[in-house]
Amino acid sequence: MRELELPRSLLPADGRFGSGPSRVRAEQVQALAAGATTILGTSHRQAPVKHVVGRVREGLGDLFSLPEGYEVVLGNGGSTAFWDIAALCLVQRRSEHLVCGEFSQKFANEVAAAPHLQEPEVIRAEPGQLPEPVPRDDVDAYAWAQNETSTGVMAPVRRPGDAGNDQLVLIDATSAAGGVMFDPTQADAYYFAPQKAFASDGGLWLAVLSPAAIQRAERIATEGSHWIPSILSLTTALENSRKDQTLNTPAVATLVLMAEQIEWMNRQGGLAWADARTRETSGLLYAWADRREEITAFVTDPAARSQVVVTLDVAEHIDATAMTALLRSHGVVDIEPYRKLGRNQLRIATFPAVPPQDVQALIATLDHVLDAIG
Fold first, then answer.
1. Are 103 and 172 in contact (CB under 8 A)?
2. Which of 155, 183, 204, 259 stands the most exposed, by the fewest C-beta atoms within 10 Å?
3. Residues 130, 300: Cα–Cα separation, whole Å
C-alpha cells in the first residue's frame, strides 16, 4: 500500500481531520499575527488581553443564547483540570456518572479518588454504546460527556426525569461545544476546552454555569469542609472571570484564536449554523459507510452517533493503520483511531472549521485507496 500514489486532484484542500487539536483556519492565524505586537507578551491584567477575554465570554454568551443568570467562566488548564474543580467545588457528597469511553471514565475515576466524597454511582456501557442516567435521590450531581471523543458516541443534554432542584447536571462538552445544538437550561455546568470546535490550542478550560451551580460552589467554599487550592477554586475563577481575566497568566494566543473562531461562527449563523454544518459533514461519512461493504459505523445506534467525531470500523482484511499512514504521507492527517480503543478503525473529526467539500474529497480519496487494494 505504501507504493500507492494518490492523485493530487482527489486530495482535500486541507488535510487536517484531527479530533483535537483540530484544524485552525488561516484567518485565525492571520488575526493572531496582526495583534502580536499589542496583545502577545503583555500583561493579562491590562486592557488589551482583558478585551480578548471579554470577546470570548460575550461571544460564547451569544453563541449559546445563554439565559439570564448563566455565566461564562474560564481558568487555567484544560477539561482535565475542570474534573478536579467539579469534584472539589460542585459535587457536594455523591455523584452519578455515565461512562461510555476513556474520557467519561476519567472523570468518574477522579471523583472516586476524592477523599471527601462518597463512592460515586457509575453506569457503564460498552464502547460504542450509550448509557442513560438513572434518577436517584442519593446523588447531588449527574455527570456525563455530551460527546465521547474516544468512541464517537453522542449523548443528549437533558436533565434526568425526576432530578431534584438541588441536583446539578455536569456536562463534559469538550468535543461537542460549538458544534452541536443544546439547551443550556438542561445543564448546570457545561464545560469544555478550546482545541476542538473552537479551533484553538489547549491550556484553558471554559464553563457555562447556571445560577444553581454558582450557588453550590459558593456554598461549598463558605462551608470550608475541605481544602480547595486557589488554582482549582471555582469561586476564584468566577471572581476573576467577571473581571475578564484569569487567576494566573493565561495562554493568550489560545484566547485570540478562540475569539476569532467564535466571532466567525456567530457571523455564519451561530450555533444553529454550526450544528447544521456538522450534521451535514458527518452525514456524508455515515452515508459513505453505508455504501462501502468494507466500512461500518462503529456506533450501531444512529441516534447515538456523533456529528463531530465519526468512528468507522474497517474490515479485518484491510490494514487501517497502513491506510492512515498512506494518507498521512500525502498530507491527510490525524484520522487514526483512539489509541486505547485498539480497533481497526478510522476516526474523522467534522468540526465546524471542516467544510463539506473537504469531507467529500476525503471520501473520494478513501474510495480510491479501497478500490486500488481490492
1. yes
2. 183
3. 10
pLDDT digit string, tens, across residues 326-347: 999 999 999 999 988 999 999 9
Cα angle 327, 333, 336 (rounded to 5 degrees) comes to 90
Query: What domain range includes position 344?
Result: 8-23+270-373
Q: How many structural domains compose the chain?
A: 2
User: How many Å separate Cα 36 from the centre of its chain?
Assistant: 27
Torsion angle, CA of 88/91/95/101, rounded to 10 degrees? -50
- Taking the C-alpha atoms of residue 15 and residue 194, their distance in angstroms, rounded to an integer, is 20
Cell representation of residue 37? 505586537
**Model-level pTM?**
0.96
| Residue 82: partners with Cβ closer than 8 Å, 6 or more residues away | 75, 191, 205, 207
CA distance 87 to 114: 7
Listed in sequence order, the DSSP H helices in the chain are: 26-34, 47-64, 79-89, 102-113, 211-223, 234-241, 252-268, 270-291, 320-329, 356-373
Cis previous bond, 21, omega within 30: yes
Check residue 366 and give its pLDDT. Answer: 98
Does residue 294 share a domain with residue 183? no
CATH of residue 301: 3.90.1150.10
Residue type, 211: P
Cβ 351 vs Cβ 309: under 8 Å? no
For 259-297, the DSSP string reads: HHHHHHHHHHTHHHHHHHHHHHHHHHHHHHHHH-TTEEE
Which residue from 296, 192, 337, 325 is spatially nearest to 254, judged by alpha carbons?
192
State whether residue 33 is helix, strand or coil.
helix
pLDDT confidence band for 190 (50 / 70 / 90): very high
Q: Are residues 165 and 314 in the same domain?
A: no
Largest CA distance in the chain: 66
